[in-house]
User: Fold these one by one.
Assistant:
Number 1:
Amino acid sequence: MGEIITSGASIVLPFREGIDINKDRIMENNLLSRLNSPKFSHRKRNFAYEMLGEMLVNDLGLYFHSVDVMNLGGKIAKVFGLNERETLFEYVTHDVGKTGVWSLLGNHDKYTDIEFERSKVHPVIGYEILKKEGFNSAANMALEHHMHQPNSYPKSEKGDPGWESGLLSLADFYSATFRNDGKKFDLSGKALMKSERPGLVNEIDALYDKGIFIETV
Ligand SMILES: [Fe+2]
Ligand SMILES: [Fe+2]
């Protein structure tokens, strides 16, 4: 178990250390309640289930990460007044492009440098997969979710990415950097996010102040 400190409050949170049965169950329940909500259309639910099933078999870390980002998306949607149904779907599918390149990637938490370089095709592949299904906003979010950082990819052809994908990028970064590594997210975590995401300083403050970066169980 780990501890997360947020402006005065201290909350205990089970960090992922290998496969944690409790976390697995919590995630699973969370996932099912979200995906079974009538807010999800049949097609989107089936698509998400199929994608997560593939992740579960091929890359457990990616499965947890996708569910984690989706749950953060639910909170972000409330704070920013976004369409919850769309946001949940966009967030859970943001890394769907990785399902198209399993053979290029290793099944472990941290990619090697070569694997990381290879993984950079996943936003474009994700865009194509989602676009083909007609899930246009999710396709754009998948395409842009790594554009909000100093070494962004892929290079944008139509200028700056939107703020919506900036919020997804924060949830993605937070999940990948703090949750799965079992690090604390405190003021130094906030500073790290600000240095990694210089264009999203106000959003980081807003999410931090609203307690988005806190998980209670
Ligand atoms: Fe990604
Ligand atoms: Fe991700």
Note: The longest strand covers residues 2-6.
Number 2:
Amino acid sequence: MPLIDTVRAYLSEPEPTVSECRHCGTTVDPGVTRCPECDGEAIARYHVA
Ligand SMILES: [Zn+2]
């Protein structure tokens, strides 16, 4: 694979993060700051990579 294609593929990757509620463990969408399940505001973010 040409180098430019590798770079392009890398740049188009979404942020490899998972967001989940610290209270109940519900996985929420990135950017969500309040848990829809328990209404908690403690959202933890993990880098998956
Ligand atoms: Zn929760």
Note: The chain is about 20% helix and 25% strand.
